[in-house]
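Could someone model nicotinamide-adenine-dinucleotide with this protein?
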Amino acid sequence: MAERAGYRSQRVLITGGASGIGAAIARRFGQEGARVAVLDRDRDALGRFANDATEGVLPLLADVAEEDSLREAFTRMDAVWGGLDVVCNNAGISIRRAFLETSLAEWEQTLRVNLTGAFLVAREAGRRMKSDGGVIINTASVSGMVGMPDYAAYNVSKAGLIELTRTLALELAPRVRVNAICPGYVLTPMQRAEYTEEQLAEQAGTLPLGRLGTPEEIAALVAYLASPDAAFITGQTLVIDGGETAGGLASAARRPDGPGERRPTTSDPRRGGGA
Ligand code: NAD
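Reply:
Sure, complex below.
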């Protein structure tokens, strides 16, 4: 069982593990000596990741939002591992769109991947973990905690994931711990796809710590939550955002000359993609 055995014997599944934060989580668990399965719908990225990994990684080509595809991936994993100890529900998409311009298809697709996909993965994992125990870690976002313009579907999907976390923690206790993490701005392909280098630098300048987070820093928090050191933590939402949500508008107004100076500009994205 994950709580007692530590990393070495852990079997860890990471969804969306072929890129960005998920890939960093996979690398981190690999370094810790865990057995790692990476599930992703991007065939090329999955192949690249599995090839680059120093230790053997179990690649699972699947879409978290497609129940049949996901079931097949879990069946394959069962055949190799016979169970699992840790699931990182990390696959996600971000669509930046003004609310009034958001199509029903965009709304449904975002919720389907970010929330329904997490539900499907957690249900498959929970059924396997309920007797032997385990840990589920959901990658939510600070966008699920505060309102952010132009990301209504994304924000709602992440807010839903936070509530799913609390409810699952109650239903699956005491054998399974369930927590969510809320990253702020983290430099990944998701962010690079939406913003220019200049805009990313501008985002960094608005944060109290003056920089974007790294995928490795997020992976470190996930590794902690999966470890026996976090054995008394469940149903919680841990924020890792460089201080982004520590204050409100008043905190920005008080620092007109500091690194946290907020200058409204037309290019200011106000919210990082996927953040
Ligand atoms: P990314 O785009 O670099 O990686 C996401 C991965 O998920 C990709 O490999 C993609 O192929 C995979 N994926 C997407 N939809 C999938 C599906 N339906 N089935 C299987 N795999 C799928 O993004 P990232 O920045 O590493 O984001 C990872 C998670 O962190 C997401 O849930 C995102 O919302 C969240 N997050 C990111 C940030 C940030 O600033 N980058 C901040 C907060 C939260």
